[in-house]
Design goal:
- The protein has one domain.
- Helix content is about 45%, strand content about 15%.
- It contains two helices and four strands.
- The chain is elongated, with a radius of gyration of 22 Å.
- The protein starts with a helix and ends with a helix.
Length: about 140
């Protein structure tokens, strides 16, 4: 493992958490987006993270392996005054739970902060080591 491996590993974690935060913010922003019943509802995005293979000189860490989309079926809501309502008065909304998204938001934020703290501590440690070497 190289000298700056801690920064690289924590940086990869920060990237994954940033992508997770982006997906959550998209989900929250679109949770009240109504569509006609003949159309698909907004599909929630979920980030899939995977560990980097530590063989072949890779320094570990994680990466975004992809994203998974939620159900396009959504939920039907009776809103006869909505301009998108069908003849029965229904519109389609995404099936996104705000409390679950807020819980994920807090977890992703804390994970990002923890990885940022690791980068700061590693940077301080490397700076101190350089100062000791000069003395």
């Amino acid at each position: 493992m190289g000298t700056f491996a801690a920064i690289g590993i924590a940086g990869s974690g920060m990237t994954v958490y940033r992508k997770w935060l982006d997906a959550i913010s998209d989900n929250l922003a679109n949770m009240n987006t109504a569509t006609a019943t003949s159309e698909d509802a907004f599909q929630a995005r979920y980030v899939v993270a995977a560990a980097n293979d530590n063989q072949g000189g890779d320094s570990g860490g994680v990466h975004v392996a992809g994203t998974v989309l939620g159900s396009a079926e959504g939920r039907l809501v009776y809103e006869p005054t909505n301009a998108l309502a069908d003849e029965d008065g229904y519109v389609r909304y995404p099936d996104i739970d705000a409390s679950s998204q807020m819980t994920q938001l807090i977890m992703a934020q804390r994970g990002y902060q923890a990885n940022a703290a690791v980068v700061d501590r590693a940077r301080d440690m490397y700076s101190t080591a350089l100062t000791i070497g000069r003395g």
